[in-house]
Structures are given as C-alpha cells and as structure tokens.
C-alpha cells in the first residue's frame, strides 16, 4: 500500500477524484529552490482538458502549497501541495456502482479494498491525481533546468498517425514544451486531433506513444542491479494511468536486428566521450552514458467509451451491460505528456540526489 | 548503489564475473520451504550456455547454500547462496582494458566507479551474476508452485523469426519449462537457431522478444500508485542485461487501436469474474484482476560481437578500434528466459508476501 | 530528508509551526477501519496544553481528513489529515531570528538548511507537528484495540517525583488513558504538578520519564537483526522532541546485576508460555515473547526557559545573550505521553502488518 | 524479515552460529576505499573471546572478501565477506533443543519460525554473527578516519564498577581503541575483570554500560522526523545482542534536573559555533550540531549462565529445568564494544553518504 516513490527524493500521492483535495508530499528537496508559480500553473494548464478532444470536467487546479516553502523558496522540509476538487458530478457514478467498467480499476479496487474504496470517478485511481503529480513535478523540473537538465516529450504517434522523430532534442524541446498538443510536425498533429475527434464522434477513444528525452544528465548515474536508470524510470512511469509499455532507445525495434546494427559506437568529441547513435537511449548497464536518455511509453486507448459494453455486476456476480454517462476523454495522450515529464523529473532527480547528495539540486 | 530488490522479500546480488564467487542473499522467505536441489540445478542448466549458439565459457554452477537452510528447509532467516567462478579467462580482458566495448557497461562503469571497477568480463555487470539470480529464483518458483502460481516464458521472436503465441498458457507452460530452447512451435525454434548460427558465423549477434505468463495470482494484488504490478515487475526486469523494453499485455499493439477494440470485457464464469480477452495483461489500475499476468521483454542483440568496431580509449580520450576476443554469446535470449522467470517470481512473491504476510509462501 | 516512518504502514509528517497546516499522510491502513472522531478529538485534547503547567498557545486542532476515508471508514488508500494553525504569534520570533536557542534545533536547522528554514516557532521541528502524529496515531490505536492490542503510558517520574510502578498494566491502562495528567498515584501526580509550577515560577522547566506498556501483541513479531522490536520502536520514539533515551524493560537497572537476577524464567500457564518476570520488556532477541512490551523514555527538561541564556548570533558568528519571550511549556511530559502512545501504535502496527499482511488490521 | 540496515549504505547480515559461514554484504561503499586487512584483523581480535572472562569457543575469524574489492580497493559494487565457522560444538545444543533458555531468543525464534529455525548455538541470533558486523564495520571505520571522523567506546561500568568518564574523547580514543578491555582507568578495569571472574566462579554473569563518542561529524546531518541521528543510531544499536537501552548525552540523568541545568549554551570559538557543555550528546532536533556525538548503551548481564533455571519445554508445553552446558561468556561487554563502534560507523556513514553523495566516503 505504498503510494510513495523515491529513495532520497520521495513523492507521496493522496486523494480521490471526488474527495475534498488531491495532493502530494514531496520530501527530500534541497532548501533554497525558488517556487515558480507561473511555471507550475503553466504545467497544470497543459495537463488540463481543453476542447473537443478532452473531458468536459473543468478544474481550476488552484493548488496551494501548505508546507515546506517559506518566502517563496523551499525550506528543505516536506513540501505539501493541495489541489481542491470542485467539479465533481458524483451522481454520475452511483447508479453504476456495481458495474465494473472494462479497462478500468473498478473490479481490481473492489478485489483489493473489499468495497470500502471511494468508487466515485475512479477514486484514488483517477487520472485526476496526476494533477498533484504535475504540480510537484513542475517544482523539480524547474530546479533541474537550473542544473542544465531538460526534459521534453512529444506525441510520437496517436490514433495511428506518426509524428516526426526528434531531430535534435536540445533544439526541439523548448518550443515543444510550450505546445498544448506536443508534436514536432504540426500537420501530423492536426491529423491526430482529427483522429481523436473521429473516435469521440463514435463514442470511442484512441491511444498512442509518447517519446521523451532527458538531456544533460552526466555519465555514471544509476546502479548495475535493480536501481538501474531503466528500472527506476519504468517503475514510476507505469503508475501513469493507461501506460502499459515502456521502452528505452529503440528497444522493440532492435529485437529483429543484429548487434552490429545497434551497438552505439563511441567517439571522442571535444575531449568528451559520446556515442554516434543512441539506440540504447543513453543507458548502458543500467547507468547513464551522458547521451540523452530516450524512452517511449505506450498509452492504451482511454478505457472510458460511450459504446455499450458487456460487463458484470461485481456484487451480485451476474452479467450486465454498461452504458457510461458522464464526462470522459476520447484521448489522454496529449494531457499525459506533462505527467510523463513530471514523473521523469522526479525519478531522475532522485537518482541524481542519491549520487550527489541532498543539497545538489539547489547548489 | 542498491543492488537489492524487494520490500518484504529482498534479494541482494553480489559478485563479479572473474571474482571468487557470485552469489545472492534472499531475505524474507517464510520458514519451512523445501529446498529442491534438483530443480535449482535444472534451472541453472537452462541458463547455462550450450552448443554453437552460446559462449564457450562453461561453468558448473556448483552453488552452495551457506545460510538460512537447515535440514533441507528454509529457516526464515537470510538465505545465502554462493556460486564459484571457475572458468575465467581474465587475460582476454586486460589488453583491451582501456577500450569501451560498444553497447556494454565499460564506459558507464568507469564514469561511475572512476576506474576502481573490476573490469574483467564485465565485472559486476556481467550476465554471469544472473546465475545467482536464477538459483534464488528457483527457490521462490518452487514455493510459488506449491501455492498454485506458475510462471513460464517463451521466445516470442528471435532473429526476426516469430514463435506462435500462447494458446493456453496453463497447458503450454509445463512442457515449455522443460525445454532448453523455449518455443511453442519447434519449427520456428529451429529457424531461430539457424538465424543465431548465421549471425555467429558473421561474428555478429541477434536479439528477440520474450513473452511471459504468470498464472494463479489472485485479484487484488499491487498498489494504485508507484508499487503497481507493472512498476514492480518492470523495475526488476530492466536489471536483466540486454532487456531494453517491457510491455504488459498488448501495450505497443494497442496504441493504434481504439478503446472498443482493447477494453477487456468482464463476464461471469462459474461464479467468478473473468475477462473475455486479456489485452491489459491481467492488470488494471496497477492491480491484478485474476487473469494471467502477461508481459513481454525486448532483448537487444548481444553487444559482444567479433566484428571490428570503432570506439574510444577511455583513459587517453582518443578514438580507437576494438576487435573482441574471448568467448561470447551470439544470442542470450534462450538463456535469459529462466532469468526472466526468476525475476518475475521474486517480484510477484514480494507483492504477495506484502499482501498476505510473511508466512504466506509456506503455509 | 525522509520524514516518513514505516515499511508497510507508512506515516509522513509535514508542516511548520507557523505555516498554514500541519498534517500527516498515513498509508498502508487496511480498508474498512472505522474512524472514531470522538476518540481522535479526545487524544488531541490530551496533547493540548492546559492550565499553568503548559504553554498559553491554544489551538483548537480542528483536524480534517481529506483523503482515504469514505462514508466514515478507511478506504485503504492514503489517509491525509490536516490541522490548521490558527494561533501563531510569529513576531515573537523575528526579533531573535539570529540567536540560536540553547537546547533547540535553531542552529542545527541553520546548518542543514542554510537559512532557508522556516524558523518561526521552531518550524518543522516544532512539537506542534506532533498534533498530526497524535491524530494519525489515534486511528491506529483504535484499530489495534479492536484486535486486542492496548497501549498505555504513565509519567513514571517528573521533576524529581516518582510515580508508582505499573501494578497490572491491563487493569491500570483503561483509567490511565482517560487522565489529563497520567499518573498511577494521584498524590505523586499532585507533587509533580507542584514541581512543574515551581519551575515555571522560576522561568525554568522540568523533565521526566514516561513508561509505556503495549499489551496483546502475540509472540513472534520483529526481526533478529536491525528490524528488532526495540530498534523499530526506538527509531520512531527518538523523533519525539525532548526524548533523549529509550530503554526496554529494566535496561539501565539491569546493568549492575547478574544474569541470575534478570533472566526472565519461563513457565506454563493455561497451556501458554509466559515469563515470571519481565525484565526484558517482552522482547527476546529482537522478537516479541507475548508478554507486555515495556519501555521507558527519558524526556529532557523543556529547553524553552525564560532565564537569560548565553548563546550566539548564527549569522554574525558573535556571542550574544538571549531572553526568550513568547509562550512556552515549563514541562511537556504530560502532553508527550499521548505522542508516545501514538508512535508506539504506528511502529507496532507496522510490524504486525508486515507479519500478517495488509488486511490484518481490519479483519 | 529484513536483516538489512541503511538507506544508502546498506549492510545485510547472514549466517548461523553453527552453519558453514556467517557473513555480510555491504553495499553503497564508494569506489577506491583501501582495504586495511591488518585493521580488520585487529578489530576482529578485539571482539574475539580471550581469557577467563570469555567463552572458551575460539574462532580464527579468517574472513574472506569475495566480491566488491579489486586490487586491494573497493570497487563500489557490493562487498561480501565470509567468515567460516570452525569450532561448533553442535551436540551441546541438541539435548536441550526443546528447552527455552531464559533471556535468550529460543522461544521467540520458535514462535516466529515455527521450529524450522537452526537452533544450534542461537542460530542466526547468535552473537557470533557480530563478527561479520565487526569486519564490515572495520572497513567503514577506516574510511571514516580518512575523513576525520573517529569513533571510540569505553566500558563506562561493568559488574557495578564505574570507569572514569571521557576527559577529552579526541585524546582518549586513540589509546582506548588499542585496548583489549577498553577502560579509561585501568584500576577500575581490573576491578571490573575481578567482578566478571567472581560472577563466572558462581556460574553467573554481569552486564554494564558502554559509552561511545563519535568525533568529527559536521553540523547539519540527520533529519527532523524519523531519520533523526538518535533514531538511526538506536535502530541499529538495538540489534546488538544484550543491548536493551540507548541514551544520548545525559538523557536519563537529565530527567530530574531543570532546563537551566541542561541547556547546552552556545559560544563562538575560533569563528565556529560550539557548545560549552554537551548534555544533548551532539544532537539537537535530531540533527548534529558539530559537537561529539555521545551515547551510552545498557548491556544486560549475559543470559547464558550455568545455574539451574526453571523454564519450559516449548514443544510439549510443560515446565522444565535447564542446566546449561557448553561454552559461554560471563560477560560480553568488553567484546561488544567494537561491535558498538562498528554499528555506529555504519549508521553515521549512511547519514553522511545520504547528505553528501555516494562518492563522499572516498574523496
């Protein structure tokens, strides 16, 4: 029952979709980190639903930091942030309480919590909880940026439409990170949005792939066994609702090739060791090699669809048919992208703090 | 620097490829688990190289259990096993000490350990360390089997050749787990071996995909955030050398479909809740739903190849050319398969012990 | 920077004395535990200052549970409680910001947090944070009681006055737990209060010893090395401000005796194994033996005194004289007692949940 | 079942008194630490029994380091050390298997491990396991010394005889650390040894108090809640067999005094902040203040005595009488002292590595 992540930088998430607050405690931050409210708000707005391709539930996400910040800077003690829930439509859920929504956690929550779970809107499993994750992540992202570490994610594919690959992540990311729909090729982005709208019109949903780059992490971070960079990042990433696969570099593409195709050759550039290609996603033997850390996440199609679905009544153990009402996202991939950046920031900062000590993030 | 995995069942791995021993400490095992030496030996033999498709280094893997077992059963205190290294050819490595092997951890180890690392044969990063993992895993696998939990893995693809998918894992696994080259379709297996031999003849290597099923885990295991089943399994799986991607169910296949294609419909069968399909790999919201847990691992082509490769001299920061000697695997996927089963056993047992208590595994 | 305690039942504390809220996240609670608001309030009132022997700062401690509870029962997801701070006199502190209060954490906080700490009222180090600990502890205490586990603490000595020892903790504790000033002998209690008042009249303070009994824990809980019952309890207990020593059973009394004096002889009573004496405090080899767990905590005299004290200006590195103003406790031992019970409940529940699984506390 | 200690420097202990090996895995050590075999041997010899005041079991403690060291220096990967058991008299134990030795862990082990435990010589609970702790501790102690951090312990009292207090620990410790019987006043030491011999002559045993100083730790190390310096040290110290109480500074002496007696006044000396007294043992609010860290451990009289004792037959649940045979220590305090130093080194190094990063110990 551990809803906490991290060894030396620890994030605890709490809250339910229809409770009073969702929130987070972030412990292990160095003292003296400037809280950039404009950036936190901007990140929250990128996660917030907007337009026809998202749920109609609108939350202002008016977060409050209630501990761990003094005079605009972190104190070094646990930072707690609260985000009130204001737009719950709880009655949308009570009539279908007993019916397990396919692809959702209703049944697994029931199996685990024996019916005591707050089922409304997915409760603690709701994607709503990622708002707290994004707010916490924003604090870490801005601190990492001061240390020369930059993270960015684009929608590599969505609804069957592929974006262009990163050309040079260092150049691509600054503008990418400003976009509400984060693609490198805007025409492809328009096609993706059309695909989402088409699915929405059918009462259906789409998924996609998010590709992320983390730049500026020095070589030598991570552990050989278990706390590998891949292991630590994937551990956290799989918490993001709808993410079902994580690969580093060209993993699932490399499986049909040969070693000579995919070994990343080293060379010297400006007295530094670099690799000519980056099929391994910046990680060898679980440890960073100084190249960009590259990974991709498979985002399954949103399970909330408006088509009638066969399912079961969990309490009576009978077959049933479910017709969802309420407000749902035909795609979450464009919203999930800042969540991925936030999780990546938390995980990589934890590895860096472990390596360089508790003051490192603000020095 | 944590080479330990698990919250309540903890595995610590130690040792270097050319040191005296590799080994493991397994702590958190219930007392009274019977040690099945024949099974441990059998699992080690499945990991051991054999024939033209593997390295010529041969190790007897004569493990010894030096603590935590008394009169053939676990005591409940830390179980330590040692496996001596007997067939090191250390001189194969000293001449090329300064040259970072592409795709290997030489450079990242140097960046992390500043040259103090035991570089011979990959040191602590060596796949050799997985022998200890397999021996420890075998103990857990046989205990899980007593509890009705069965794990099996097949080579879903290798060298561009695809195996048949699982038909019924419960029926497929018993014979699969006996095979030295674990495929469901032996003809495809023969093609894969040919592909490996062809790569070996070229001084090259191949990769592939391993698909795993875990059967018998009850619904309700795992945590909503961070210690999700996917997060915990992937964390451990990424430690296995050459694994660069992990997906649950049909993750990277689902990304181009719609929710209506991939939502696993629930139904009642014999008063139990089941899903008609298993695209989600037995996990919803991070928690088991009682269906088989299904995941796939991308195994990159083995980085040790005999072709000349450009690289760098790490000490002098100069470009160089590397021509590997020594004994290397043109493929490790057939050997990695019991490693994946072992890691899966350790991770899932940890989740189960957390849920049901420390005595559960032997009751 | 880990302000979290516990392996399977995890408490995270946050907040500063003069911030908006102090609070706690409690994760790992079984679902279905009834929240007994009257009991939580009662425990908070026992911690709250009252009368001449306590600080004049009065807080209503109107806690709110904002996650993890649904329809009056725990959901099994993280339970977050918030307690607003309403009676801060921050200006009492700003004039003496640079002066390290002797016996307090001002200087060590400055050394750790480089001046970014919220210094007002002790910030995150304030005993005020224990209100959140007590509210969280009350939830666990009432759940433990349902399982037959009872905890109680008396003021064994204060200001040089000794209370009677426990006669039979099972009989002593019910009435003891109702008392605002928890002594077994009321006459001695009156003497203690006089000693506190006398110290207060001198602008000074007193300390004492708290003795605690935990009843009903079965034999076989705890670990042989490191996670011993003594180790886990003491780890948590030393967080309580002013506690500087922890002993189990008759520890510091046994040091001058012989083994034959202090070995607790076993005997059979009603087919159960018991000990005739309990010098070891219910723990042998780090593991419970089924007898009451007994421990004592040394509470140093409150460091906030009104006498002029020599100290230093931390910023200018000069000697200085400090004359405290504000509102301070001449003794905290009577208030610390429910804090000790709360910490003991959290630590022992964590050990029990580790042993018996995540549902145990509510089954 | 976690026999592991530490967050960033992790020690795992394994082995049983009459097994093949006892040993330890130490993970998180920086690379490049020189292994000083002479010092490890010297520390082991100080722990080893000698003369009339100790058990007649003699072990050569011929440790072997089998991983994590290359060319005489740590590699940064897990360091495993093995110590063979060679002088077991297992038959001493089999005849009394069913009889729970008072003051020992026989019954609690049985309650926890259901009879599967290796009961011979106390099994995994045996003080013998501390040999591995001392060998691991010696590696850390010598690395800490290079960083200016020195640890020393004297027998503050034994058998009712008190040693002199530390005068100046920095001057006292170098010679103290060479002594087989570590007292500051040799006459008092002779009296203590006489008291031990007198107890031995009676078939009885004695206990005492160990006082430890840790010098050179900078201010600002430790956490405000839970991972306080006191909490982390005591957690580890209570693992040492026979330790039943831990106090910092003058804890149990302060309880009868007033704040004005025990507040440690700050002053400036050579532009540094110091305290005039050290009643708080170098820790305020859980965090180091730069003064010596001082703590005392209560060591109960050794429970192995030769007098007939009432006890129970655990299997038949009947009363019984036990007359111990075998080889036992009439006192262990003089041997426990290097164990305390070792544990202190491990715990404080963990806190320092957490604060300053993984390379700190060797830089």
Detailed description of the structure:
The structure is a homotetramer of 363-residue chains. By secondary structure, the first copy, chain A, is an alpha+beta fold. Chain A contains ten helices and 18 strands. In chain A, helix 1 crosses helix 4 and helix 4 packs across helix 10 (333-356). The longest helix of chain A has 24 residues, at 333-356. Chain A is globular. The first copy, chain A, starts with a strand and ends in a 7-residue tail after the last helix. Chains in contact: A-B, A-C, A-D, B-C, B-D, C-D. Chains C and D meet through strand 1, helix 3, helix 7, strand 11 and helix 8 of C and strand 1, helix 3, helix 7, strand 11 and helix 8 of D.
Brief summary:
4 copies of one chain form a homotetramer. Chain A is α+β, with helices and mostly antiparallel strands.
Summarize the SSE layout with pairings.
Four copies of one chain form a homotetramer.
Chain A: E1 4-5, E2 10-15, E3 21-27, H1 37-47, E4 64-67, E5 69-70, E6 73-74, E7 79-84, H2 91-94, H3 106-113, H4 130-146, E8 150-158, E9 161-162, H5 169-176, H6 186-201, E10 208-215, H7 229-237, E11 243-248, H8 251-254, H9 259-262, E12 266-269, E13 272-275, E14 283-284, E15 287-288, E16 293-299, E17 309-313, E18 318-322, H10 333-356
Antiparallel strand pairs in A: 1-2, 2-3, 3-7, 4-7, 5-6, 8-9, 8-10, 10-16, 11-16, 12-13, 14-15, 17-18
Helix pairs in contact in A: 1-4, 1-10, 4-10, 7-10
């Amino acid at each position: 029952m551990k809803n906490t992540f991290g060894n030396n930088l620890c994030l605890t998430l709490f809250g339910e979709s229809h409770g009073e607050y969702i929130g987070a405690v972030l412990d292990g931050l160095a003292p003296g980190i400037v809280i950039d409210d404009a950036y936190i708000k901007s990140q929250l707005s990128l996660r917030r639903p907007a337009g026809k391709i998202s749920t109609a539930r609108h939350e202002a996400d008016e977060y409050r930091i209630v501990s761990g910040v003094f005079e605009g800077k972190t104190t070094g003690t646990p930072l707690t942030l609260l985000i009130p829930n204001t737009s719950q439509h709880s009655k949308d859920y009570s009539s279908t309480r007993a019916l397990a929504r396919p692809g959702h956690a209703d049944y697994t929550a029931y199996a685990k919590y024996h019916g005591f779970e707050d089922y409304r809107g997915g409760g603690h499993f709701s994607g709503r909880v990622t708002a707290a994750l994004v707010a916490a992540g924003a604090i870490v992202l801005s601190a990492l940026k001061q240390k020369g570490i930059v993270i960015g994610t684009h929608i590599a594919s969505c609804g069957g439409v592929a974006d262009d690959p990163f050309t040079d992540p260092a150049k691509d990311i600054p503008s990418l990170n400003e976009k509400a729909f984060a693609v490198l090729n805007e025409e492809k982005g328009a096609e993706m949005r059309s695909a989402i709208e088409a699915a929405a019109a059918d009462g259906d949903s789409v998924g996609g792939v998010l590709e992320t780059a983390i730049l500026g992490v020095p070589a030598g971070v991570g552990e050989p066994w278990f706390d590998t960079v891949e292991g630590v990042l994937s551990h956290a990433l799989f918490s993001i609702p709808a993410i079902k696969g994580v690969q580093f570099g060209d993993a699932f593409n490399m499986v049909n090739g040969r070693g000579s195709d995919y070994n990343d050759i080293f060379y010297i550039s400006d007295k530094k060791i670099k690799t000519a290609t980056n099929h391994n996603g910046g990680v060898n033997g679980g440890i960073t090699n100084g190249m960009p850390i590259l990974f991709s996440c498979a985002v399954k199609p949103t399970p909330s669809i408006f088509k009638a679905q066969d399912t079961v009544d969990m309490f009576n153990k009978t077959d049933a048919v479910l017709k969802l009402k309420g407000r749902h996202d035909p795609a979450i991939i464009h919203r999930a992208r800042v969540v991925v950046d936030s999780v990546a920031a938390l995980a990589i900062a934890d590895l860096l703090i472990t390596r360089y000590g508790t003051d490192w993030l603000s020095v």
